Amino acid sequence: MKRNIITLVAIFALSFILLSSDCEEENGGVATNYFPHADQTTWVFDEVIEDETITMKLNGTENHATAGEVQVLEMTTGGETFYTYIKATDNGVTMYFDLTTDDRWEILQYPIKVGDTWHWDITYNDENPGNDEEWHAEVLAEENVSVPAGEFTALKITLSSAGYVDETFWFASGTGWVRDYAEGYYDRQLRSFNQPS
């Protein structure tokens, strides 16, 4: 009897480990924790300063000049659609603002914890010579944030660069982007989230 119980426990543990590793590989590893990135994942935000609704949806892929394959993030508001491009890997999540330049935000780096900081440089080629930028990110806290979609425990991350207003993001495990804020410019709060199965 004791041997049967030990065998059942061992089988259960092995099954759990195998299922966990399969899910991790299938979803792109650790990047799924704070930025789910399955195609057709959709976030709907209320923009409380401008009283608008913004829909962000991962919709297909494109090739970036230096980053290779990236996901297309469609941002629709007021009848207009804008595009940015997401590179989500086990090392982090980078948002590119077009397909040809190095203009980007390195919004997450893995592994991640409160107190982490990272830096990156944006080097402009011929379009803006001499206007290179240095950006900084810092994980300020893990805090509870209340948005129309509910209560989330989220990492609070600030991105900053000289001459720009600080951008603050909240990312919750399993949901990703739940809020972002730039004083005097916008305050986007998650209303709904849908990730295809």
Instruction: Give the overall shape.
Output: globular
Elements, N to C (H/E) = HHEEEEEEEEEEEE
Helix segment tally:
2
Sheet with most strands: strand arrangement: 6-5-4-3-2-1-12-11-10-9-8-7
Provide the CATH topology: YmcC-like fold
Query: What is the averaged pLDDT score?
Result: 82
Q: State the name of the first-level CATH class.
A: Mainly Beta
Low-confidence stretches: 1-30
- Beta-strand segment tally: 12
Explained architecture:
There is one protein chain. The protein is mainly beta and 197 residues long. It has a single domain, classed as YmcC-like fold (Beta Barrel). The protein has helices at residues 2-26, 31-34; strands at residues 42-47, 52-64, 68-77, 80-89, 92-96, 104-109, 117-122, 133-147, 150-160, 167-172, 176-182, 186-194. A hairpin with a 2-residue loop joins β3 and β4 (80-89). It starts with a helix and ends with a strand.
Give the topology.
Blueprint lengths: L1 H25 L4 H4 L7 E6 L4 E13 L3 E10 L2 E10 L2 E5 L7 E6 L7 E6 L10 E15 L2 E11 L6 E6 L3 E7 L3 E9 L3
Antiparallel strand pairs: 1-2, 1-12, 2-3, 3-4, 4-5, 5-6, 7-8, 8-9, 9-10, 10-11, 11-12
What's the short version?
This protein has 2 helices and 12 strands; from the N terminus they run H-H-E-E-E-E-E-E-E-E-E-E-E-E. The chain is mainly beta and 197 residues long. The protein has a single domain, classed as Beta Barrel (YmcC-like fold).
